[in-house]
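Ticket 4471: requesting a sanity check on a complex prediction with magnesium ion. Repro inputs:
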Amino acid sequence: MNKKGFIFDLDGVIVDTAKYHFLAWKQLAKSIGIDFNHEQNEQLKGVSRVRSLEKILEWGNKEISRDQFMALMSRKNDEYLSYISKMNDSEILPDVSKMLDFLINKQQPISLGSASKNARQILKKVSLLEKFNAIVDGNDVSKAKPDPEVFLTAAKVLEIETKDCIVFEDSVAGVKAANSANMISIGIGDKDVLREANYIFSDFTEISEDFIEQLINK
Ligand code: BG6
Ligand code: MG
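Returned structure tokens:
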């Protein structure tokens, strides 16, 4: 049987945590007198914690010391983790579990490819950790999406050539990263936002088993 590498982003693809990142950043930004809108928030999706704070400070034209920077990062994460602590498997996005089981049944290698340093903790919370052959997350890479490092590392761990990897992403930065890794990018979300993706679906309920089989047999 043909084997492809299926790489899943976490936040906004597997679980509905993008909203918690938004709330936590919004609250933190407000505490230092900065506001940002939903459009700007799209630019934070997929982007590392460090890079996100840098962007917010740029938007607010604010310069702070390194110590303050570190303190704000940890405050944001504490706030984010307070949302995560209440999570359970009801926050797995529609048909994600079905897709994972379908791929496992077809003996396809599956990896996580996430910028988050909280990835393992979240997957454990929603009882999905065991479904993955590999976990590549924010602890394993030094370059944030749109750099392709996270996906190239996942391909290496799965031992699948990059051209045979398929990436599910909800962020502009992540779609760019998948494209520059020379992988097939599947955008999950808004067509207008994710227009650079090779394929776009609103969510996994729109992706048919036939479509996945065709990808596997290509
Ligand atoms: C990405 C999210 O998956 O992970 C970003 O889309 C987030 O919003 C990034 O900043 C880093 O996550 P964490 O959990 O390490 O702060
Ligand atoms: Mg995401």
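Notes from triage: The chain has two domains: 5-15+89-217, 18-84. Leaving this open until the requester confirms.
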